[in-house]
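Shift notes (night). Ran Fumarylacetoacetate hydrolase while the centrifuge was going.
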Amino acid sequence: MTTLTVKDLLPADGTKGTLVGRVWLPRVSGPAVVAVRSDGVFDVTSRFPTVSALCEEDNPAKALGATKGERIGDLDAIVANTAPDGRDPNKPWLLAPVDLQTLKAAGVTFAISMLERVIEERAKGNPASAEAIRKEVTRLIGDDLSKLKPGSDQAMHLKQVLIDQNAWSQYLEVGIGPDAEVFTKAPTMSSVGTGMDAGLHPKSTWNNPEPELVLFVSSRGKIVGGALGNDVNLRDFEGRSALLLSKAKDNNASCSIGPLLRLFDDTFTLDDARKLDISLNVTGTDGFVLDGHSSISKISRDPTDLVAQTIGKIHQYPDGFVLFLGTMFAPVKDRDAPGQGFTHKRDDIVTIAAPELGKLINRMRTSEECEPWTFGIGALMKNLAQRKLI
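Came back to this:
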């Protein structure tokens, strides 16, 4: 991992937005909630012991703006000390900007890409069969699949057509049916941030990054901001059985969020988040380059609908949650041999970026090679109590 700079981190408008991060402070052997501002990085942990607590404010951006905090250093130096290679353990470094929130993820949220993948899969390489299915889909809903609303009468008609064409699957059920797929991505506090190694199961031979928007949601169900995320996915494990989803998704360092949380304010709103274009770049030591993107504007379920299906009378999250919104990106570029598709190799550098949210950069390693996760909820509570912050 090369040394990161501020240019590898900040949004296109710099520090004009309300930016929140977490920084490891060696002098207290624990994390600090920080505000990233034009004149430095400020520790606000005495006012907000956790990012979760900040997100519980009626107006988190306003509350953070009214908190001066203690300056702990320049962003440049903290960012440069974040990558595990060459890190000085006696100086601060960045962490993922999430702590007590539950880590949730939504899947199969882009019908525009999902339907085409399933059509091709069910057609089994027969172009004529695939074209017949496409024509029937077009007759029912037109040629803009992004307008298809899951659970609608139109979607249910499409479901029956696909069943008749022997093209139905469990993925389509959650993609265009009334119920969204929402699952727990990883344990609370297990996320890695930008500049850190992201993990792959050592037995996986077919895997890929998933560039996504991550919403931060309070315990009341209010969406307060967003960050970038990599919902690292093992295609071979999940492909063998949907019941292996947890093993495909939850491994050490397999959940990456960052670089910072951008709270909603006058410079960045939920409507802005709905229009995000997220880019992906994978660069390997073998010279391989893969580029992709995901446009939130083409999502099939509105972010508010996905949040509403996650929290409510049926399920509560007292410390709030973050929600990966899914991706329209599906890697098809061959890496080694024709027809073999894409899979990660050791030391791939993955960059997920959006002008409004900055860049999330990770190096890919097996989960056992990544830094072990040792600082959990109990350690955080003990550390904050020792510092007299709770």
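The domain at 6-107+181-387 is CATH 3.90.850.10 (Fumarylacetoacetate hydrolase; domain 2). The two ends are 36 Å apart (CA to CA).
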